[in-house]
Amino acid sequence: MAKTKSPTKSNFESAENYKYPGSVNLMRPEVGVQAQFQKRKAPQRYRYDDSLSPILEWDGQNPARERGEARIARAEQELAEAKKKLSGTPEPWEIVAANGHLAIAQEAVRELKAMGNPFLNWAGKAERLSFEVPTIPLFIHERLSTKAILETLKGHRRDKQIDMLDLWGDPQHPIADQVLRAYEHKDKWVNRMILGDSLVVMNSLLHYENLGGQVQMIYMDPPYGVSFGSNFQPFVRKRDVGHNDDQDMTREPEMVQAYRDTWELGLHSYLSYLRDRLVLARELLTSSGSIFVQISDENLHHVREVADEVFGTDNAVAIIDFAKTSGLAASDALATACDYLLWYAKDRAQIKYRPLFVGRSSGGESATPYSWVELANGQRRSMTKEEREGVTPIPTGSKIFRIDNLTKPGPGSRYAFEFEGRKYEPGKRWWGTTPEGMGNLGKKRRLIAVGNGLYYVRYANDFPVQPLRTLWADTATGGFVEEKYYVVQTNSKVVSRCVLMTTDPGDLVLDPTCGSGTTAYCAEQWGRRWITVDTSRVPLALARQRLLTATYDWYELKDESRGPAGGFVYKRRQNSKGAEVGGIVPHVTLKSIANNERPEEEVLVDRPEIQSRVTRVTGPFCVEATIPTPQDFEAAQSETAAASESQTRVSFTDRMLEILRRSPVLRLEGNKTVTLKSVRSPAKTLSLSAEALVQNGVEKPVAFIFGPENGAVSEKLVYQAAKEASAKNYSHLYVTGFAIQPNARMLVEQCANVVGIPATYVQATPDLMMGDLLKNMRSSQIFSVCGLPEVQVRNGRKRDGIAQYEVELLGLDVFDPVAMEVNHGDDVPAWFLDTDYNELCFHVSQAFFPRTGAWEKLKKALKAEYDTSVWNHLAGTISAPFEAGEHRQVAIKVIDDRGNELLIVKSLGDAKR
Ligand SMILES: C[S@@+](CC[C@H](N)C(=O)[O-])C[C@H]1O[C@@H](n2cnc3c(N)ncnc32)[C@H](O)[C@@H]1O
Predict the structure, then answer these.
(1) Does ligand 1 come within 6 angstroms of the Cβ of 491?
(2) In whole angstroms, what separates CA 275 from the centre of its chain?
(3) Fewer CB atoms < 10 Å away: N or C end of the chain?
(4) Backbone angles phi, psi at 121, to 5 degrees
(5) pLDDT per position as a tens digit, 42-52
(6) Of 681, 677, 697, whose CA–CA distance to 689 is shortest?
(7) Rounded-to-integer distance, Cα 903 and Cα 889, Å
(8) Ligand 1: distance of its center to the CA of 303 in Å?
(9) What sign does the CA torsion over 677, 680, 683, 689 have?
(10) For residue 516, which atom of ligand 1 is closest to its CA?
(11) pTM of the prediction?
(12) pLDDT single digits (tens) 4-32
């Protein structure tokens, strides 16, 4: 087992990351084996328990009676089983089994109670008693590790001492194992970023990986369900999104699918969308787990009703109001200043809760009771108005205090107590402590007479913090404090608090709405394991950049061999002014002084000991995706499912054909177009979708193949279509899709040589799938020819006798199939190199964010160890030099502004001098 090495003086300034030696993951296959992977599973059906009439009726034909009786029977049966196990002297295993039965009985009672609650109804709810989710495997597409990038840059060579694949967390399973034994092997834990619909991904986590009951906290920040077009950002580098602006509409298939399903019936569909996801989220949570749902005031009440239904009102923990940066300035009424977090426990009785504390003046709650001051000479007085308002400082050496009650309402002692020559009685109440205790308070100058009463003196320093409550007014820090990546980014202070309150280091956190990756970032910062999911490539591209380039404090580990799961170190420390600045603070109470006890101590979980001068970076993580492949159409499912899928496929092809007929224009860069005529379905075809003539083109017709409706064009689809088009003597093949797999894309480029017919990839705008939602779509924007990166691989100077290579990204090429020429653009948001590409998945060894300061934080932190030129490379278009690896090929992945990934593989044998 790998030991987590704590950074020491000897490796100051190098970058370190946390490891999770005790945690495992089930092995997922890498994308390179996707075509061979056969372990398919049937879709999963989830049933709701409600859709009952709001009035619980027990007679007639009401289905509530049947459900109610079933639950009563279940509770009775489980209680009887538990009783049986506990009779006599139970063995330990019998106690465990009895607890299991009690938990099921408790669940049945919870469901029974829930049936009597009023609930929210909406269009379509009563008709939809269950829903089905495809059970799709996840494939690993990319492995990332900041440490691996830094190591590659260090000597510009593969360090034989360092196991690079280990830095990426790559267990290197043989292909046969990946195909035949995926989801069986256990691997070391690696954090995960997943592209796909949250429902499909959560279902996959539950049913391919058995992750049910293993997630400690879920942070969900869904679109707020207020207007179509909000809450997502279609471009990597454009943060301002106009509502319903055609230009800003997303162009990604999975994304559009999600939104189409979500908003077809407006709020009604939105509530169904949320309920489905909450049902699966609940299954993933461990019994002590929590979920936070972020929402605005428009739908807070509805979402609360839905969450009550799924989790049970008993499990509602709190509604947190947190200040947001930008409120909607309503000129005719109050401007909104906050958003909300709905916090639910899987089981309120078992919740894991770590209280947080804030400074007396922070957290948005005032410190007004502390309005007295004790001067350095011991004299006491109330603060002046100017002192209270902070206009005048309090005199040096003085202490602030408040006066507090010495009596309590409940039974205790009643006696006369003498203080400074005067006798005091507790009146109708009781003293809070004994006469000796009062004596101790007096001796320690903790008593003060004010008016006719005697009071306790509580210094502000007795407990320098106060418990965090549900009003978080200090979270609107504004863009200048935190880097803003995404239009709807949540302040990391908000997410950090949720992480800290409900998890311990090493626990697993899930965010099914990743966005710019705030939850992953906060989980990484606090040493929690994470999985984050988004249906859109744009936010995932932003999240990947944010995590790769982030730096964090190194929190000292209690037990290095266990990693963060062993906990962090907390200490009591004071600064030169005597203020408590450590993670342990004293909690002096009346009771501890009265009884002469040592004061209690409180742990501030957000203040672990920091090992200074160590730069911590994000640990290894992988990018996975669910995107179903076209083979899914052939997958052996139930006959009806297969029949309905092939039906869908036929109607989709027909729809596409009709659209091509009505909008026969293919758009190229630079306002150029190709116009088609006589578009029709080909006769007796095996794999082609359409044929047409090109206006002013050659007389021979061209062929079309349409990719799948909800997935990427595969290599096999291209190959079969090209073979048929070539055999039938078409002049050109147009491969049309919403997305394309990298190897399919390569085959399109090489089709003329490989199959004997030139081919072009035509990107179809996913707006097509939105039906009536986008009524004013311009036909010239439906089909466009998509770019491919142009790169040059060169031999660099030899180093220690070993050949070095470098890659230059020349730009994105867009091929013009009419003029047969390439048009060029050279500004991309990100590009990556895998300097030893194994065709199974992409190991990011160099990551470039051209013309940005993305790597600035690391550059500053590691300036002693890395030459400036290294960082210049990472902000440019020429790679740092590298050696060829075992596979003698380099893969270059370019991310375009839409978050699309374009991949090119180059052999290192034929690099130009
Ligand atoms: C409000 S944003 C989350 C922002 C995030 N809290 C942050 O700090 O950046 C909501 C995200 O959910 C994603 N999303 C919407 N529907 C989804 C679905 N069905 N599955 C997965 N992600 C979805 C959107 O793409 C968007 O990035």
Answers:
(1) no
(2) 19
(3) C
(4) -115, 150
(5) 889 998 865 44
(6) 681
(7) 13
(8) 16
(9) positive
(10) 9
(11) 0.82
(12) 445 554 444 578 999 999 899 999 999 88
